[in-house]
Amino acid sequence: MSLSSQHSPPLRSVEVAQFETLLERIGAQLAATAHLYDERGAFLAGVIVSDGIRPGVVQIATGAWFDPWVPGERHSLEKHGNPNMITADVGASSLSQGCSAQTASVEIVKWDQALPAVTAFEPPSMV
Hints:
The chain is mainly β. The protein has one domain (5-88, 100-110): Barwin-like endoglucanases, CATH 2.40.40.20. It is 6% helix and 19% strand. It is built from one helix and five strands. Strands 4-1-3-2-5 form a five-stranded mixed sheet. β2 and β3 form a beta hairpin. The N and C termini lie far apart (37 Å).
Protein backbone atom coordinates (compact mmCIF):
# COMPACT_ATOMS: atom_id res chain seq x y z
CA MET A 1 0.00 0.00 0.00
CA SER A 2 1.37 3.39 -0.98
CA LEU A 3 0.72 6.35 1.29
CA SER A 4 2.24 8.88 -1.07
CA SER A 5 1.48 10.19 -4.53
CA GLN A 6 5.15 9.57 -5.36
CA HIS A 7 4.11 6.13 -6.54
CA SER A 8 1.06 7.24 -8.48
CA PRO A 9 0.47 5.82 -11.94
CA PRO A 10 1.65 7.91 -14.89
CA LEU A 11 -1.88 9.19 -15.54
CA ARG A 12 -4.62 9.35 -12.92
CA SER A 13 -8.00 7.87 -13.83
CA VAL A 14 -11.53 9.11 -13.52
CA GLU A 15 -14.51 6.92 -12.80
CA VAL A 16 -17.63 7.86 -14.69
CA ALA A 17 -21.18 6.60 -14.27
CA GLN A 18 -23.02 5.28 -17.31
CA PHE A 19 -19.79 5.59 -19.18
CA GLU A 20 -20.91 3.82 -22.31
CA THR A 21 -23.33 6.70 -22.92
CA LEU A 22 -20.56 9.21 -22.27
CA LEU A 23 -18.20 7.35 -24.57
CA GLU A 24 -20.76 7.54 -27.36
CA ARG A 25 -21.29 11.26 -26.71
CA ILE A 26 -17.60 12.14 -26.82
CA GLY A 27 -16.71 9.54 -29.46
CA ALA A 28 -14.30 7.59 -27.29
CA GLN A 29 -13.72 3.91 -26.55
CA LEU A 30 -13.17 1.99 -23.34
CA ALA A 31 -9.75 2.70 -21.85
CA ALA A 32 -9.83 6.12 -23.46
CA THR A 33 -8.07 9.23 -22.23
CA ALA A 34 -10.30 12.17 -21.44
CA HIS A 35 -9.67 15.91 -21.43
CA LEU A 36 -11.54 17.42 -18.47
CA TYR A 37 -11.86 21.18 -18.25
CA ASP A 38 -13.73 24.15 -16.83
CA GLU A 39 -13.13 27.90 -16.66
CA ARG A 40 -10.24 27.42 -14.19
CA GLY A 41 -8.13 24.93 -16.10
CA ALA A 42 -7.84 21.49 -17.65
CA PHE A 43 -6.21 18.11 -17.14
CA LEU A 44 -5.93 14.70 -18.78
CA ALA A 45 -7.07 11.47 -17.16
CA GLY A 46 -7.66 7.85 -18.07
CA VAL A 47 -11.25 6.61 -17.82
CA ILE A 48 -12.65 3.66 -15.86
CA VAL A 49 -16.25 2.46 -16.12
CA SER A 50 -18.00 2.22 -12.74
CA ASP A 51 -21.53 1.43 -11.60
CA GLY A 52 -20.62 2.90 -8.22
CA ILE A 53 -20.74 6.50 -9.45
CA ARG A 54 -23.96 8.49 -9.71
CA PRO A 55 -25.10 9.32 -13.29
CA GLY A 56 -23.67 12.62 -14.50
CA VAL A 57 -20.87 12.52 -11.90
CA VAL A 58 -17.12 12.12 -12.38
CA GLN A 59 -14.80 11.05 -9.57
CA ILE A 60 -11.03 11.39 -9.58
CA ALA A 61 -8.56 10.68 -6.82
CA THR A 62 -6.38 13.55 -5.66
CA GLY A 63 -2.64 13.39 -5.14
CA ALA A 64 -1.18 13.50 -8.64
CA TRP A 65 1.90 15.68 -8.83
CA PHE A 66 1.43 18.92 -10.73
CA ASP A 67 2.81 18.48 -14.26
CA PRO A 68 1.82 21.28 -16.65
CA TRP A 69 2.34 20.85 -20.37
CA VAL A 70 4.00 24.27 -20.52
CA PRO A 71 5.66 25.06 -17.16
CA GLY A 72 5.09 28.64 -16.06
CA GLU A 73 2.18 29.20 -18.45
CA ARG A 74 -1.09 30.05 -16.69
CA HIS A 75 -3.89 27.57 -17.52
CA SER A 76 -1.48 25.17 -19.22
CA LEU A 77 -2.99 21.71 -19.66
CA GLU A 78 -2.06 19.49 -16.68
CA LYS A 79 -0.93 16.13 -18.04
CA HIS A 80 -0.66 13.97 -14.91
CA GLY A 81 -4.31 13.91 -13.83
CA ASN A 82 -4.23 16.60 -11.13
CA PRO A 83 -7.82 17.74 -10.44
CA ASN A 84 -6.55 20.81 -8.57
CA MET A 85 -6.52 22.45 -11.99
CA ILE A 86 -10.32 22.71 -11.98
CA THR A 87 -11.16 23.24 -8.29
CA ALA A 88 -11.31 26.53 -6.43
CA ASP A 89 -8.27 27.41 -4.33
CA VAL A 90 -10.33 28.51 -1.34
CA GLY A 91 -9.91 27.37 2.25
CA ALA A 92 -12.82 25.64 3.99
CA SER A 93 -12.97 28.43 6.60
CA SER A 94 -10.86 31.25 7.99
CA LEU A 95 -10.14 29.02 10.98
CA SER A 96 -9.03 25.82 9.28
CA GLN A 97 -7.84 26.84 5.83
CA GLY A 98 -8.30 23.17 4.97
CA CYS A 99 -9.30 22.09 1.52
CA SER A 100 -12.66 23.08 0.13
CA ALA A 101 -15.20 20.53 -1.02
CA GLN A 102 -13.12 19.87 -4.13
CA THR A 103 -16.13 19.90 -6.38
CA ALA A 104 -16.38 21.38 -9.84
CA SER A 105 -18.58 21.25 -12.91
CA VAL A 106 -16.53 19.96 -15.82
CA GLU A 107 -16.79 19.26 -19.50
CA ILE A 108 -15.32 16.00 -20.77
CA VAL A 109 -14.07 15.32 -24.28
CA LYS A 110 -12.05 12.49 -25.75
CA TRP A 111 -8.32 13.17 -25.95
CA ASP A 112 -7.39 12.00 -29.44
CA GLN A 113 -3.85 13.35 -29.64
CA ALA A 114 -0.68 11.55 -28.62
CA LEU A 115 -0.25 11.52 -24.85
CA PRO A 116 2.37 13.96 -23.62
CA ALA A 117 5.21 12.57 -21.53
CA VAL A 118 4.71 12.78 -17.77
CA THR A 119 7.63 14.78 -16.42
CA ALA A 120 6.43 15.33 -12.85
CA PHE A 121 9.14 13.09 -11.41
CA GLU A 122 12.04 14.55 -13.34
CA PRO A 123 14.24 17.09 -11.55
CA PRO A 124 13.85 20.67 -12.76
CA SER A 125 16.43 22.04 -15.14
CA MET A 126 18.95 24.37 -13.55
CA VAL A 127 19.16 27.92 -14.81
